[in-house]
Write a structure and sequence with these properties.
Elements: H1 6-9, H2 11-16, H3 21-24, E1 35-37, E2 41-43, E3 49-51, E4 54-55, E5 67-68, E6 71-73, H4 80-93
Antiparallel strand pairs: 1-6, 2-3, 4-5
Length: 105
């Protein structure tokens, strides 16, 4: 695979510099359940960059109709959070895992 663009390679460092409170101040009600999402970036047909987003079903009990990254619960058979995020994206949008280069977790 090709090397990730410079703007994308810098994201893990910027996230690492954030105060952990930023991520824990508003935990979900069932915070003991582990889940994962996939932030998938790639080229768009016009030569720019694109990101994959999904829209949750309007009949769901929570977060109905919201735009989100593909993802969900980490199941015991998943290879950790990365495996769960890739599996969920494959289930939700038909993502081919072979075309994904994981740059950070």
């Amino acid at each position: 695979m090709s090397e990730a663009p410079a703007w994308l390679r810098g994201i893990p460092q910027r996230v690492a510099e954030l105060d952990p409170a930023y991520f824990r101040d508003f935990p979900p009600p069932d915070a003991t359940r582990h889940s994962a999402v996939l932030m998938l970036f790639g080229p768009d047909p016009d030569g720019g960059e694109d990101v994959l987003l999904t829209q949750r079903g309007t009949n769901l009990r929570s977060h109905a109709g919201q735009v989100s990254f593909p993802g969900g619960r980490v199941d015991p058979q998943d290879a950790g959070a990365v495996g769960a995020a890739l599996r969920e994206a494959e289930e939700e949008v038909g993502l081919d895992r072979a075309g994904v280069e994981v740059i950070d977790t």
